[in-house]
């Protein structure tokens, strides 16, 4: 009995972490029940998980309704307790298997109790009710156990580098080296299964409900102008290379020009960014394009799709999503992907500082776009230490070349700040009031060029929130999903290396805002675009635009504004002259979206076989050397770094 | 009235070719109707094609039920008749638009009648009944026309390189250069839409009905042993390359070892074969893998999936599919992918030839596997000329080093053949009878090694069938779909360049046939495998196997039989030791399958943007040059062919 109780605790613990794997209410009487998805959609039976195989049930579905049935279970040995019982695991759950104690079953007992854990076995036996008081309500099969009659070891398991339990800590490098073992963990199984389910629902929404056509586009293509981040693929034609495209952008526009009307694809995309944390050299986007659509049309399509595919257990999604202009996002959050789950917005205090006799403030305000901005960190004085404040200031100085001055509101609401002596009591009071600051808050002030000051404070807003949360201050509800559309981006931005030249804020196919067409030839830097970003909890999860469908405008943007070599895109320009309908679309970053939905810290947790941040597959050791002989058919040879004329 | 009649004929013609584009019964009263897919599946509304856009209807859906309604249509100008009417086209159909003849509409009339064909327009107007007798029953909108009230040209169209009509012949090179125009054709629209629909149904079957998990696997991987046809992708690590895998084989096995149980993926695969007709450097397979499954399980899964996703208009699919052993396929059809839509099977006439005093026959029969085989081409004498017969003989001599001797049965059933004088009247009679030959048939005899003689006759069987069909003899029903499983392949084959060494008949992960395990170490060349091919109308459309799940066996096959460097697969060998369940799977060639379903002559007709047979994208001109500077970050340089030490 003591043993049984121990097991009960053990399986309860395991179930607590394995829970997400359970696909549905798994008692087979439930499995036959007809479920309505949404009022106007489909009536659908749950999937049959035992079709085409010899098992009668999964390890997660037996319940008291099955008592007396002869069953065959296939699974992994998760736990052994002397020669009394074992626990069998599969993707669906756990089942307790009782070993018969009579002499003629000694062989079977020995085999199952001595096999190594994680061995693969088949057990045939009878479902029996657990003894009274032994039910485990937290285990899907907790009402029953299976009395073994026959068993076979299908494959043994050697000693593993780590135990298959979510609770067992292991380094990410080890997890990636033994990815096939990590995939057995409840968390990864759950993530991959939920991803598959969400994508399937997206497809049903697009294909079955709205007539979208799933079209596969090539991944062996040619370089796009400015495609410095595109992997190249040598071919057997000397000197000729394919490129792995960063998105199907050109193809989807060409499909629309081909009259396809509604295109979508769950598209593999490639980007060579060298080593960047939480980026992958290949990633997946939900790629959508439509004819005759405007910004509002794409937005409601995406809202509808996300609502339709949203996992029930994450609660309902409200739509339409809020919309914010790029200008407002920058002013209030200092970033184009605001995390709207918490306040601490940036406030403009320029007017209050107009009369302050501080040299650098006055100097700033004389410059174009000069301003003074501030944020208030509620309760900051209680948690953020002087040292941390210093390093925050240092960070934005480095990153944005922006000075930030802190004010700590003492318990008596008096100011502790280098600013203190330059401001009148009245001004301080009015600032405290304007910022709605209370005692023990921290205020951060930044005087500078508008975008720079806001960006710096936006960065500090996020850092401060993370710090407060580290100290247990609940700021962002981890179960909340704040979607937000950010719109009215600039069409062009000054180039980083030469502010006199313009580059596309997003890509050169983005249409200008209809209200700004007059500015196009006179002041292109002021033109807003018809680009829209979808933001979720402060991460960009999608971006799209209404595209340019006029060939002359497209040529002018490429040639006259962006100074690109238009010959590389001559096929697109010609296509735009050939009866191109007005069109627009969007691409959602699927990896990031799923990661946020499941609450994973990294997109690596929602990708079956991710690369390390250095682009390596730690399991197979890719990338690898290729012999000079094999390279010869591609007419290339490796230049050892030491002989290269310039560095990387 | 004459004009109206002309148009009726014209649109009838257009509709005849555009028909396949029509997605469903398109009268909107029909669109609301609830349709049952299959008894135990889903009840589903047809897709809403007008959601998210400003059009009220597509160009293919208006009918008399809409008379009196104000509508907005968006489409392409397909046809103009003076300033009387125009025809508007979209992906869904055609609608006739009547131009109002009153003076105040002269502007609208002028605009629509003078715009270039294929211009993109929006027309708003009223649906009216066609005048009595003017209905066009072959046009989905043939009961009505739209009286225009307002119209705008959204984009004009320049003169196109070819008209958008299926009837207009154009070279494939031109079609590929202007692929976006070719996609406007009814045939390509229909192919791409049907492909999307079939794939969606496959997903529903796998995911929703049978609990398969859609998992994306990497395409940037490392070379597999013997992966000479894998494209390489240079990285920023000097000398290190990714490989684009030919299939997700390793990943799907690792997912199964990871306990995923049921995996599928519509997977992009890559193969660098240089220039091969009707091959593409990237292609798509329906990739499936399951735990705890046997050959019969995979076969019924695939049969179920194909039946479920099979287009209704192609008639029902019978299952289970017939099964044939590799040995029988070779004996009867001379090929491992028999076209069973017609007879003309290969027959063994060795016993009849045992006593024939012909030196080369006797010599052949003394050798191992020596035999005499024959096929009968019914009515061949009427259609196949002497010259054609000569070149058929020449072909197999070249290709298989196999002599074939023809017998022409004259109208009086007498033999015309070089064999004639060597055979007794009785033997000739017995052969004619055994072959069920009639007057004016042609018999082809081949004496030689079994596989060689069969292969030669198998090739001639197909060539003869094609020739007879060219003369109008109906042999293969173009609407028939003959699926066939070919099983019991050999596990290993002698290497082409060294008959003493063995190579995998399919791939090194294929499990041996359980009945042949005893032969594994004694006579591996005789071991049959658990590989199965799916053949459709004489084309291989799929292949799979039960895999080796025992690490020792896998190592023995790789190391001792195949002499491969096992270190390249050490991660897989280690995974097999870590609790790998028995498993198996299959991959279907999606492009080929869809091409056969739609009756397309090439897989290029079911791929949106195919490469030419030389691997070029004729539209964008990929592959292209990459500057030495851009290659430098990948530590490679191009070797001009003239400086290469050895040829290609």
TrEMBL record, chains A, B:
GO molecular function, one term: ATP binding
Gene Ontology biological process terms, A to Z: aspartyl-tRNA aminoacylation
UniProt cross-references to InterPro entries, sorted A to Z: Aa-tRNA-synt_II (IPR004364), aa-tRNA-synth_II (IPR006195), aa-tRNA-synth_II/BPL/LPL (IPR045864), Asp-tRNA-ligase_1 (IPR004524), Asp-tRNA-ligase_1_N (IPR047089), Asp/Asn-tRNA-synth_IIb (IPR002312), AspRS_core (IPR047090), GAD-like_sf (IPR004115)
Gene3D superfamilies on file: Bira Bifunctional Protein, Domain 2, GAD-like domain, Nucleic acid-binding proteins
Keywords of the record: Aminoacyl-tRNA synthetase, ATP-binding, Ligase, Nucleotide-binding, Protein biosynthesis
Transmembrane segments: none
A Pfam family per the record: tRNA-synt_2
Gene Ontology cellular-component annotations: mitochondrion
Aminoacyl-transfer RNA synthetases class-II family profile domain residues: 192-610
Family the entry assigns: Belongs to the class-II aminoacyl-tRNA synthetase family. Type 1 subfamily.
Protein name: Aspartate--tRNA ligase, mitochondrial isoform X1
Organism in which the protein naturally occurs: Xenopus tropicalis (Western clawed frog)
């Amino acid at each position: 009995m003591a043993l049984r109780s121990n097991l009960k605790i053990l399986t309860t613990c395991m179930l607590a972490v394995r829970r997400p794997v359970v696909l549905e209410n798994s008692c087979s009487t439930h499995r036959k029940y007809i479920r309505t998805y949404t009022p106007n959609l489909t009536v659908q039976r749950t999937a049959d998980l035992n079709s085409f195989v010899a098992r009668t049930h999964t390890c997660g579905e037996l319940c008291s309704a099955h008592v007396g049935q002869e069953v065959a279970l296939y699974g992994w040995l998760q736990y052994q307790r002397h020669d009394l019982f074992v626990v069998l695991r599969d993707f669906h759950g756990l089942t307790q298997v009782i070993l018969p104690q009579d002499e003629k079953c000694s062989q079977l007992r020995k085999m199952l109790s001595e096999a190594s854990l994680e061995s693969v076995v088949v057990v045939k036996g009878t479902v029996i009710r657990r003894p009274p008081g032994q039910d485990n309500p937290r285990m899907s099969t907790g009402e029953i156990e299976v009395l073994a009659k026959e068993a076979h070891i299908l494959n043994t398991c050697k000693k593993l580098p780590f135990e298959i339990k979510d609770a067992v800590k292991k380094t990410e490098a080890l997890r990636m080296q033994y990815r096939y073992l990590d995939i057995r963990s409840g968390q990864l199984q759950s993530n991959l299964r939920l991803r598959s389910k969400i994508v399937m629902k997206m497809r049903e929404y697009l294909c079955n409900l709205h007539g979208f056509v799933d079209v596969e586009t090539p991944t062996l293509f040619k370089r796009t102008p400015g495609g410095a981040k595109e992997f190249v693929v040598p071919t057997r034609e000397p000197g000729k290379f394919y490129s792995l495209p960063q998105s199907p952008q050109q193809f989807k526009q060409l499909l629309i020009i081909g009259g396809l009307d509604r295109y979508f694809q769950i598209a593999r995309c490639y980007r060579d960014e060298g080593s960047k944390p939480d980026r992958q050299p290949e990633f997946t986007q939900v790629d959508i394009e439509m004819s005759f659509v405007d910004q509002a049309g794409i937005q409601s399509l995406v809202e509808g799709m996300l609502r339709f595919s949203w996992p029930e257990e994450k609660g309902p999604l409200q739509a339409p999503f809020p919309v914010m202009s790029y200008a407002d996002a920058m002013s209030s959050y200092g970033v184009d992907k605001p995390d709207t789950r918490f306040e601490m917005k940036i406030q403009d205090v320029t007017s209050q500082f107009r009369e302050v006799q501080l040299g650098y403030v006055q100097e700033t305000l004389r410059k174009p776009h000069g301003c003074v901005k501030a944020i208030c960190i509620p309760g900051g004085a209680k948690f953020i230490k002087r040292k941390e404040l210093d390093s925050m200031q240092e960070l934005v100085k480095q990153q944005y070349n922006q000075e930030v001055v802190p004010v700590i509101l003492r318990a008596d609401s008096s100011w502790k700040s280098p600013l203190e002596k330059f401001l009148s009591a009245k001004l301080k009071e009015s600032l405290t009031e304007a910022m709605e600051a209370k005692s023990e808050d921290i205020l951060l002030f930044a005087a500078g060029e508008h975008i720079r000051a806001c960006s710096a404070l936006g960065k500090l807003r996020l850092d401060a929130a993370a710090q407060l949360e580290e100290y247990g201050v609940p700021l962002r509800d981890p179960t909340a999903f704040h979607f937000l559309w950010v719109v009215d981006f600039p069409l062009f931005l000054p180039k980083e290396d030469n502010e006199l030249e313009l580059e596309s804020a997003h890509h050169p196919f983005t249409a200008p805002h209809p209200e700004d067409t007059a500015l196009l030839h006179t002041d292109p830097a002021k033109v807003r675009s018809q680009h829209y970003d979808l933001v979720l909890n402060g991460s960009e999860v999608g971006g799209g635009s209404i595209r340019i469908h006029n060939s002359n405008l497209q040529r002018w943007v490429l040639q006259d504004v962006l100074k690109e070599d238009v010959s590389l895109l001559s096929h697109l320009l010609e296509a735009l002259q050939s009866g191109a309908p007005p069109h627009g679309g969007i691409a959602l970053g699927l990896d990031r979206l799923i990661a946020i939905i499941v609450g994973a810290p990294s997109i690596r947790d929602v990708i079956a076989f991710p690369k390390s941040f250095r682009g390596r597959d730690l399991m197979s050791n890719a990338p690898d050397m290729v012999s000079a002989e094999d390279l010869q058919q591609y007419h290339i040879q490796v230049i050892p770094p030491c002989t290269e004329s310039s560095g990387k």
